[in-house]
Amino acid sequence: MKKFNTSPISGMQELTPAKQAIFDKLKNEIAGVYHSHGFLSIETPIIDRTEILLAKAGGDTEKQIYKVVKTAETEGDADQALRFDHTVPLARYVVEHENDITFPFKVTQIGRNFRGERAQKGRFREFYQLDVDVIGREKLALAYDAEVVKTAYDALKTFIKPEMKIRISNRKILSGLLQELGLETKSEDIFSIIDHAEKVPKEKTLSAFEEIGLSNSEIEKLSSFMGINGTRETVIEKLKNLDIKNEIFALGVEELDEVLALLEKQGLKDTAVGDMLIIRGLDYYTGSVFETFLPEYREIGSICSGGRYENLASNYTENKFPGVGISIGLTRLFYVLNENNLLDEVSENPIDLVLIPFSENEYEYTFNLAEKLRSSGKKVDINLSDKKVGDKFTYAAKIAKFASVIGGNEVETGNIEVKNLETGEKLKLEDYIR
Amino acid sequence: MKKFNTSPISGMQELTPAKQAIFDKLKNEIAGVYHSHGFLSIETPIIDRTEILLAKAGGDTEKQIYKVVKTAETEGDADQALRFDHTVPLARYVVEHENDITFPFKVTQIGRNFRGERAQKGRFREFYQLDVDVIGREKLALAYDAEVVKTAYDALKTFIKPEMKIRISNRKILSGLLQELGLETKSEDIFSIIDHAEKVPKEKTLSAFEEIGLSNSEIEKLSSFMGINGTRETVIEKLKNLDIKNEIFALGVEELDEVLALLEKQGLKDTAVGDMLIIRGLDYYTGSVFETFLPEYREIGSICSGGRYENLASNYTENKFPGVGISIGLTRLFYVLNENNLLDEVSENPIDLVLIPFSENEYEYTFNLAEKLRSSGKKVDINLSDKKVGDKFTYAAKIAKFASVIGGNEVETGNIEVKNLETGEKLKLEDYIR
Q1: Structural domain total, chain B
Q2: Which residue range(s) make up the domain with B28?
Q3: Which of A311, A329, B156, B313 has the fewest CB atoms inside 10 Å of its own CB, making it the most exposed?
Q4: Chain A residues in contact with B41 (beta carbon < 8 A)
């Protein structure tokens, strides 16, 4: 009988061992692809100075940050809070360790971040983010924008079976357009309306434009701009046809063209497309912006997003560190894949083989056998409980695909039979190992 | 120029990318051994209910726990704090997920825990612990005590080169002895004095015994008890020679004998030894207790400890879950190995090869080549910056052992040369791959 409420706090992921094995498999596959692309791992502390974490924040971030109470023994410290993303601690890290870093710094961060949001199904307060970023000193080649997209795509491809669309824009394009239309003062509102356009009915977007005082002709221009999407050639042609003479606009189009062209060269012509609806709410993005969708499961929303920021650490240093990054929010992604039965094809038997010594007389032989099998890469459990052999097979069937009983006969002859617990088929140990 | 203090908060580990690669390698090696022994991974939330975390705590734990301030959006929640070890959340997990678990539950937890201690060189407030535990329902065979010790030993052995000693006792032995001597009421003090005996001069231990009112003959008996250590046969014989007729004492000796015998059978006769000085301060241990030392580096202290607890979740449920566990505190261990130059032999080149396209004309060829190399398991970076080729070699030499320039000639002929950046030696790509 329980004496306590033992459920985790709402908004926290806590998986059964079987689901955890799948989660870990996806996490390791993503990390493996990140490393194969030459990204180096770092880890920043989960607890950081509040003044660092909130140097640029505002709005939701400030409302959702978890502050930490200092203990009797840490009273002298600065005010502290839990990191809410990887980008802010990365900015601090780059400034702090500038001399230990080789630039361009290709870096990956994999770990949990924390946001104290209102409890809501499918939203997490503790969540894994798996980020890649490339940070330059003074300059960073645009080709890295394509590189982070390709890296994230390769990582997702290891376990996402439905079609993916990576929708890409460049914030300079809309900035230039608004400059050209004389709407700079309304930029923030317009970015926000376009950012939300897909989540509301079309009339609501139009009336939002009206509410901030746009003319019919301005609304028409923005609407046709927002409708531009497709593969590189189409999108670039349509943007050029808008006939906007603004320099920032032209630079944005040129950058988008180059990023999409680099992705075309890597076989992503139909996967990585231009789309003027992509904004990314966060105001630190200054160029390319990316979001990734599964067209057959649009309700899931973006599963992987990022962009280019011209100056990563401007709050902490006068030095200029341009960067580009992308992030997979694995906790939420795992949740929605599971809800949509898209994890079916991913399965992992955490344990290969359970050895069942018949009695304590067989322990020594079994230990030696396990050691051999483990050093050849097998995950081997030995059931050491004092239950009956039948119960031990029931135990084995729950956690592994194969089991072997080791009795006096096996010790004497060295002939070990391995039983497939799903089919009942019996194999010689030598054949099982092969 | 910095505008902010960008150092991490004192007591937090933050490594350079090169050191992080070594840290991650050790972490993965330990995890690999844990899994090879058939332990299943779980992860509990870092933030948990304060009432759960502090259900049994007291003393230092209560002083050092980091409480979390609820945000505007989580106000309705229970009081929250950061977990300070893996054992308490494991107890909650076992009660919560009892029906999803196969017992004996062989479980591993790898992650960061948090203690707001006074800042001190070599002490960490955020630290990785890599635990294995085996939890039974109602009963748990003693053989698992030996199993967790062997698992931790195999894990440490992957990177610890100096000799290791795993010192083992059983708390029932001292409990029974004190019962026999009529000193039960002073148990807590005596356990604590013996626990600290190695850290203070001998006279201090003796005077501590005097201060709590022990007679000379009692002190003499305890002193000779404390001097008992060595391989199984020696220790068991000396304990039996004490001629204590107490049942709990006898049971403790029998258990210790069995655990040491099982470790002997696995080749650890001289490594896993009995030692009556081992107590483990934590009062939830009820049987076997383990600590691991490097005799050549005694000042490092124990690098891996654990023990048997008869009732893991007694604070949360009426059901009985006996368990045994062991933990490697990797953050501190990494720090002391580094300080003692014991990481020298561990080295990891995080990136295998840097490809340097001569110009954008070679990008497509280079992308394809990288993809092939990556799918054959290589970690391949492409330098996409617009620096000179010489600068790109400088970059490559800092992060990888090999580099290749891909120019028009290479694209045309497919003859790629791979340069060893340490020796200057040049290889054909085909030979490099082999």
Answers
A1: 3
A2: 11-164+294-346
A3: A311
A4: 17, 20-21, 24, 350
